[in-house]
Each structure stands twice: as structure tokens, then as C-alpha cells.
Design goal:
Two copies of one chain form a homodimer. Chain A is an alpha+beta fold. Chain A is built from eleven helices and 21 strands. Chain A starts with 20 loop residues before the first helix and ends with a helix.
Chain lengths: 415, 415
């Protein structure tokens, strides 16, 4: 894409009410726009990153044999009443609204009840199970404080998967596979090394659960890491146990972290009240055993920003960068560089490389500052000087290292 | 995908309260699930069709030079008050809800005001324009009656594009280009021949507008078609003019139709109250001239069902079918067909063909009835008999025509 066509521009300052570092950078670089506290629009650069993260997650969920659906935001009150989760005293972050005929409806903060009810149309016998179903959809949570930028939103994109199993063993086996798939996601988006599976209490649905926590100074959570097992426990559990749940090691490292995913055992908490059951091989009726598996996609994006950003701006891992390469030529007065850069841009695009091409007629310093802020991991510079030598300069955003690359080699370097 | 893994199953009957033909078929075939009147979940087959339609639209919008964003559902009351559209007397289908601190917010029924306000951060001078920005996002409209299946939803996926121009001429030129892009969309989803541009009154935003109407007996609108110009006028306009607006032909054909898209001139209705302006070449401040361009994606899907379905079920046009081919082998008692069908399935998938493979051990008649209902345009049958002859049977869902195809030719036939 030609940067002159991109409607967003970088900004020197974020809005004054924006205290979160990741949101400040994402707003300044033009990835998101703050509509209100906890509610962000995704602009072209931000949407590209969201889509790349979503597709990685989608691939990993599909590999688990999960099927994608798109459930609704508007939620039938009756279903949630039956599940025992409609009352604001039980679930304190519902948004609710009314149809014209005064019927109350909720905005989905999660989708266990809706999906459990839906499956009653399709699940009868043990032959219909197990099932793994997910969606990538917008959630609504009426947070009383929403001050962590895109990390704790009132409206946010989430991947939520639900498992439906016949036995505890079947459930446990999938639960472990899902854990592994989650680690693949974190690896692929670039934060595998910083991310720990963390035992925690189970929130509103079950006694215990597993969180995935990414270590970063910007984190609001505290975890205690066993480096031997790459396992952590959260603050709450630490108060009770203060040892690694795997190896009993008591020499745990206290670290600040951000939760980037969680998985819960739901048991029969939803299937029993909503009567999602199946006939087993001996025709005995049993309740389906459920699990749920969430990743907040905006939160993951914000975490990546927090983990890698430096004083100049964002640094995207290659797999989720908005573009493969940022082409930032230095135009000359004679007008020789422009057509050569145009040609290089066209050539790279024709080879299936995604390029943000800074074709604007502005000072090089301004281009480079913008490029540092936007954070595409590889920058390519073309100038009178490089043209004279028939090379290009390829600059690594993380290290600042400059490679002098023969023009014919640039495709290889980018890939 | 193996049909034995697909969690949906076909149903003999749709819910009794579902009066719309398209929704009845889509529910029976397992494409959608009705959550409440006007609110439908999209199941794996339905989501595949939605994604294919969305991608066609996306490609056509990108060709217009439009940039994709994802705006928010939650809407800031202040912005809509300023735009003069917050009051329920002005816009009668708002859903509204409240933050914990009692601040009222709306659920986006449309996004003119939010985007106009957002662009104030980025538009200063004539150099920043024109801009074309779109999203594919869920809209919420509090319809008092929502009885047309997925055609008039309370919650529905929509592509909405907005144009921001400097002059009437610039606006008019893009408006014509957008019309052409819309026709490309209808052609590509398979209803080009049935679809007419239709002059109509402008709804809540402007005096006149253009609708795209698709002729079908299931339509709730009436249009008057000039076959010479392939132009139509709607009922309202007909009462005033009763002649083709292009050639003055008075011999118009009255037809039932469904609106599958509309485009409006917004003028300065939003940019003036919200103060989205630019400095022109002579530094004179001017309001931006806007247009909006909508396609309801669920509605388009429902229309395609209405136009092509027959007494046996749905018939998808090739470009938006959930799968390229439905492989429905007839298994034999000796178990020879199953491994051959497994191998053919694997081979087709490896060639990038999307296949729904009915690997279930059920009667052939049941398989074929399901296949007719689901409506994948090409069915391939393998049986003891076809194996003996080293052929496959390829059946056209529309015509029922059976082709005997050498196994080595099947890839070519599918493509």
C-alpha cells in the first residue's frame, strides 16, 4: 500500500486520557482510534494485525478439529436465566437492552449458554460427540473501570472455543491438546518465550483453571514462575501453595505479567441446567462435559506491543506485522529515485510481498521516525547513493542493524 | 470436510414460527440457527458462504481504492446528538444501553457519525481527500417486526462504505464507480441478471438514492423495470413519474423484488454538524461531501436462496457455495468403495478443491436428499458400479444432468 493513500497519519501525542502504553503507541501510530474508555476502532494498519492474529488462531483451532461458527451478540434472557447467569449479582458485567416490545435481551459477554442451547438441536447420542466449536466475535463487558487501553475492553474481539465431551477422560485429553495449541499460537505471534501456563482460580465457572500469562513490565498481574518447568502460579494460588505445582520447587521468580488466554473446565455447569445431554452406548442419559478456551485478540495485540516496543515505537514480530516490509526511499531533487522506488514497489507486490511504500515527499528523518513508530520489522531504503552502488539498505527494526543488499537479493532477505 | 464431523445435521422441519422461505431452508440445511426473531447464528456451512460473499465484496471495494476498518458497535451518544440522529423520534430503531456509570450509549445501526467524527483526527487539507473507507461489521436495528428470516434482522452483518469528497463532481464520479462495483458484486455472487438499479426516495439521509433490487417472487418490494435500460423505479417513485428515468419509456414491467444494496448521497448532512471540513487550495474552509454505500451480507445470502432454490432445497452459485463439490459415495457391503472415496477426497483436497465428503454410513437416498437440501452446485458419486467402469458421476444440482467422467478428468470438471 502507498502510504500517501493511507488515511491515518502518525501523531506526536496520544489523547491525554489514554494512560496505557500500548494504546498510546497504537493510537499515535494510527492502528486504533479510541471511541470511549475500553472501546476502540481498528484502523487499516490495526485491522491488518488483528486479521493476521485471527488467522493464526483459526489455523491452530482448525488443527484441533474445531469447527468455526458465528454466534450472536444479542442474547436470549430465558437461556441465561435457566443457566443461572442472568442476574447482575451473579454476572456483574452484563450490558442489557430491550426490544421494542420491552423484552429484555443481553449483549454476549461470553457464549456458553447460547451454544449449549443451540447444540440441543444437534446432540442426541454418544455418536454426536465429542464436539469442539469456536468463533471469533465481538464480546461486550460492562467494566466499571476500563483503563488498560485495548487490554480490558468494554467491546473487544475474542476467540472463544467450547468443548463438548462424553467423559472426564475425553475432556481431559482435549484440554491438554488445547493447551498445546495455545502455546503454538503464542509462539507464532512471537511471545512464546515470555508466556507461561499459570494455575489460577476458576473465576465464575469452575474452581481451578489455567491462564496463559506473558511476562512484561507493563503487566497488571503478578505471577510466580518455576523456570525449570516453565510453569507459573498466580498471586491467589501463591498465597495458598507457594510452590511449583509440577515439581514442588519453592524457588519461584516473581514477575509482572499479562493474561493472554485462559481455559476453564466447565463440567456440567451449563449442560445440566440447560439439559444438553446424550444417550451413551447403553442408552443411559448423561450430561455433556464442557470446557471453554478464550483468547482476547485485541489484548494479545496490546501485549505484543508492550513486550517489544522501545522508546522509538512499536516493533511487530514478523508473523503479525501489518506489512512484510516498509519501503522508505530517500527522494532526490532530480527525481531519479522516485521511479526506481515505484518499480521496486510494483515488483515486490507482484511477488506476493506486502509492502507499505512511503511514497510521500517529506524529509527522510520524518519517514524514518514514522517507520520506527509503526514498527514493521524490516525497513528497506533506496536512495541516490544506494542506486549508484546497485544495492538496497535493509534495516532491522529491533537491532537497528543495516545490511547492504544487492537489489537482486532483496526478495530473499525479506522472506 | 468430512460430513460425519460436521456438527449440524439436516432437519425435516424448520421451527414453526419461521415463515420466511429462505430462513426455513437455511435452518433445515444447517446453515443458520434462529436465536430470536431477526437474530441468527451462522453455523459452519453458513459462515463459509458469508465469508465467500464478504471476500467478493472486499475485493471489489479494494479495487475502488477503499480502505478497510473495523468501527465499534458501542456508539458515543454525544456524537449522534451533534449529528441530530440520537432522538428515537428521528431514528426509530436504536438499541440503547448504559455503562455502569449510567452513561447512555447506542449500538451502531449505521456508522456515518462515528466515522465522520473519527476522520477529524486525519483530515485537514484538500490533500487528505478524497477518502473511501469501509467495514464489514455487525449492525443492530431495533425492528418492531422482524419476520423476514435473515432478510430484515435485528442483528446482521453489513458492508458499509463511506466516501469523503471535496466537490460534487468528485463525489458524483466516485458514486458512479461504486455503482459499477456493486454490479460486479451481484454478478459475482450469481444474481447479476436478476438485479436492477432502482431509483427510490432517500430514506432518512437524502432526498433521492439508488437501490439495487433483485427480482424474485419472494420479494416484499415492488419495482417497475425498463428492460431496455435495465433500470427500475420503486413503487413510491412510480406513483410520481411512472416512466423510465433514463429513456422515458412508459412500458414498465411490474415485478416483485428484494433490496440487496443501496447507495445514498449524504451531502454535508453529517460533515456540517460534526464539523468535518478541509482547507481547499485557496485555504477556504469547506465541509466534506459524503456518500454511503451499504450491502447487507445476510440479506444477500437470503436473496440468493430465494432466487435459486427449488422444491428439493437450496442451490448455491459456484462462487459462493460452501464447498466446491459434494462427494457422496454409495458404500458397498464388501467395503471397497470407502477406501477409494477416502483416497479421492484426500486427492481433491490436496489439489486445493474444497470438498464436503459424505462419509456417513447411511442410505444413498438420504445422502442425496441431504445433498439436494444443502445445495452445493456439483455432486460427485462413486459406487461399485462407477469403480468397475473407472468413472465418476458428476451431477449438476440445478439441472440434475448426470455426466459420466473418467476419474482422471474430475479435477477439470470441478474447476
Amino acid at each position: 500500500m502507498r502510504q500517501s493513500q493511507l488515511f491515518t497519519k502518525t501523531r506526536k501525542e496520544a489523547p491525554k486520557d489514554e494512560v496505557s502504553k500500548n494504546a498510546q503507541l497504537l493510537i499515535r501510530a494510527g492502528f486504533v482510534h479510541k471511541e470511549m474508555a475500553g472501546v476502540y476502532s481498528f484502523l487499516p494498519l490495526g485491522l491488518r494485525v488483528m486479521n493476521r492474529i485471527s488467522n493464526i488462531i483459526r489455523e491452530e483451532m482448525n488443527l484441533l478439529g474445531a469447527q468455526e461458527v458465528l454466534l450472536t451478540v444479542l442474547q436470549d434472557k430465558n437461556i441465561w436465566v435457566t443457566a443461572g447467569k442472568w442476574d447482575d449479582k451473579v454476572v456483574d458485567n452484563w450490558f442489557k437492552t430491550k426490544l421494542k416490545n420491552e423484552t429484555e435481551v443481553g449483549l454476549g459477554y461470553s457464549h456458553e449458554a447460547e451454544l449449549t442451547n443451540l447444540l440441543k438441536d444437534y446432540v442426541r447420542s454418544w455418536r454426536d460427540l465429542p464436539l469442539y466449536i469456536y468463533q471469533i466475535q465481538t464480546k461486550f463487558r460492562n467494566e466499571s473501570r476500563a483503563k488498560s487501553g485495548i487490554m480490558r475492553g468494554r467491546e473487544f474481539l475474542m476467540k472463544d472455543m467450547y468443548s463438548f465431551s462424553r467423559t472426564q477422560e475425553e475432556h481431559a485429553s482435549f484440554y491438554e491438546k488445547a493447551k498445546a495449541a495455545y502455546f503454538n499460537v503464542y509462539k507464532r505471534v512471537g511471545i512464546g518465550e515470555q508466556t507461561y501456563i499459570t494455575s489460577s482460580s476458576g473465576g465464575s465457572f469452575s474452581k481451578f483453571s489455567d491462564e496463559f500469562q506473558t511476562v512484561t513490565d507493563a503487566g497488571e498481574d503478578v505471577i510466580y514462575v518455576c523456570e525449570k518447568c516453565r510453569q507459573a502460579i498466580n498471586d491467589e494460588i501463591f498465597k495458598e501453595v507457594s510452590a511449583c505445582p509440577l515439581c514442588d520447587n519453592k524457588d519461584l521468580m516473581k514477575k509482572k505479567a499479562v493474561e493472554v488466554g485462559n481455559i476453564f473446565n466447565l463440567g456440567v455447569n451449563f449442560s445440566e441446567p440447560l439439559d444438553l445431554s446424550f444417550a451413551d452406548e447403553t442408552s443411559v442419559k448423561k450430561s455433556v462435559i464442557m470446557g471453554c478456551y478464550g483468547i482476547g485478540i485485541g489484548r494479545l495485540m496490546g501485549t505484543v506491543v508492550d513486550v517489544f516496543a522501545d522508546e522509538k515505537g512499536i516493533i511487530w514480530p514478523k508473523e503479525i506485522a501489518p506489512f512484510d516490509v516498509h519501503l522508505t526511499p530517500i527522494f532526490d531533487k532530480e527525481g531519479k529515485v522516485k521511479p526506481a522506488a515505484d518499480a521496486l514497489y510494483a515488483d515486490l507486490v507482484s511477488k506476493g510481498i506486502s509492502v507499505l511504500y512511503d511514497d510521500r515527499d517529506i524529509r527522510p528523518g520524518e519517514k524514518f521516525a514514522d517507520s520506527d513508530l509503526i514498527g514493521i520489522p524490516l525497513r528497506v531504503i533506496m536512495s541516490e547513493k544506494t542506486m549508484a552502488e546497485n544495492i538496497l539498505e535493509a534495516i532491522d527494526r529491533t537491532t537497528g542493524e543495516v545490511k547492504r543488499v544487492p537489489v537482486s537479493d532483496i526478495e530473499r532477505i525479506i522472506k
